Amino acid sequence: MNKRVSIQPKDKDSSVAFFFLFLYTAAIFIRPHEAFRVSQDWVVIKAFAIIALLFTLLSQRPLRVSSQHVMVFLLLPVIIVSAVMNGYGMKGISQSELFIVSSVIPLFLYSSLISSIKRHHIIMIVCIIAALLMVHNGHVQRNSFDGFGWTGTQYVGDGRITYLGFFKDPNDMGMFFVMNLPLIAYFFVRTKVIGKLLCISVFSALLYGIYLTDSRGTFLGAAALIAIYLLITKGGTKLILFGIAIGPVIATLIAARGGVSAADASASGRLDAWYHGIQMFLSNPVFGVGMGNFVEWHRRTAHNSFVMVSSELGFIGYCLWAGAIFLTVLAGYYIVKNKSRILENSNEVPGDKDSQTKIKSVKELEQELLLASALFFSMVGYLITAFFLSRSYTLLLFVFLGMNMASHYRIIKLVPVFKEQFNVKKIVHSIGVGWGLMVMVYITLKVAL
Q: How far apart, in whole angstroms, are the C-alpha atoms of residue 107 and residue 425?
């Protein structure tokens, strides 16, 4: 009797594509080509991205298209239509092209090519090394007589450190530092004594870097990240005591320094920008005022990534943007809160019962859950700092979003039931959370103004 054999397509990991993703990561964060005058104008970043994309499409299998990919991709027609509706047709096309390069392609590459914990570690180490180089360059800037670092960049304002590329803005650098803190904590948990000492040193260096950026958004991001970690993992008395201790400090900083960023004239100016952003949304609720047009309607930027997207891309654009982010973040939250239960429920892990394969799968799952937890807190760091900064479309968001998605893919492979965290109900819930955040902004304005 003939048996029907089911042939499953074999996964294929493209080493060449990942190699160029590695080079792309180094190029966007370390940016060595911009440190030399002869290579400053080279299109290194675009070249690495295109080559990585081509090899991914040709040899990486499977090619996954998730709900987050769809939502981010659908932002493209929204950007174009929004621009047309506001009389900026050609600007919408150029903005959508920029969005493809800085958002759509990076999200696809990182979520597709980081197919193992080892690959994740490589990318994470590149991020941490880049952060350390930024801190060292900033230290040189602050201690040089002319304010220049070894990259040829000069500090701004009253000594706010800068770096190459889009890290010339201290706020972007500070956000990057905050998002790297959970990655260092992850390696601290995994390593032994020498590794732990190294992680403590690196963690301290990044805190020093946060101080050098002189960004209140970054400071609040780091402090609130610790508070949220305690809330989620500990809770109870510890969280209350921490809130009592840190709350007055944060309030004093905001009142004394006039806002979250040292460049702001006053806290009222920030709230005024939020108010005008909500008015823009109410006047153009469906498609907004157009991507990049916030400053055309108001004298300064939004100082809030959520307000910026809702005002520029309207209800549809905000649903897609916030949905992609919070769908990923809530899946990470589920992992953090249910890690022990997932590990205890061995029936969810593939493998024969009481076999070596089973033991290996459980250990692999444990490592994956630990990594996913660290990446979740990196996204929390983004959400906090983004609440005080206009970084709605920053490359940092889509790199770390892709890293989170890649981790979730591997967990689904080990625990298929985890896929339920990405169903339609969860998508709707994620969009609702995004709008809940906008309600918080509105309440803040009602109380403060």
A: 23
Q: How many Cα neighbours within 13 Å face the side chain of 54?
A: 7
pLDDT given at position 357? 59
| 32 assigned to some structural domain | yes
Cβ proximity of 71 and 276 under 8 Å: no
Residue 273 lies in a domain: no
- How far is C-alpha 324 from the geometric centre of its chain's CA atoms? 12
Range of the structural domain that residue 43 is part of? 14-61
Residue 280 lies in a domain: no
Phi, psi dihedrals of residue 215, rounded to the nearest 5°: -105, 120
**Cα 339 vs. chain centroid, distance in angstroms?**
22
pLDDT tens digits, one per residue of 130-188: 999 999 999 999 999 888 999 889 889 888 999 998 999 999 999 999 999 999 999 99
How many domains are there within the chain?
1
Residue type at 362? V
In Å, what is the CA distance from 142 to each residue of 222, 393, 447?
Answer: 22, 30, 39
- Answer whether 183's CB lies under 8 Å from 371's CB: no
For residue 155, what are its two tokens?
Answer: 């500090």
46, two tokens:
């675009």
**What DSSP assignment string belongs to 3-54?**
PPPPPPPPPB--HHHHHHHHHHHHHHHT-GGGGSGGGTT--HHHHHHHHHHH
- Quick: pLDDT tens for 373-400: 999 999 999 998 898 888 899 999 999 9
The string of pLDDT tens digits covering residues 286-343 is: 999 989 888 888 878 888 899 999 999 999 999 999 999 999 999 999 999 888 877 7
Return the bridge partners of 154, or none: 148
CA dist 266 and 269 (Å) reads 5
Q: How far apart are CA 409 and CA 421, in angstroms?
A: 12
From residue 258, alpha-carbon distances to 6, 65, 266, 268, 272 in Å are: 65, 44, 4, 8, 13
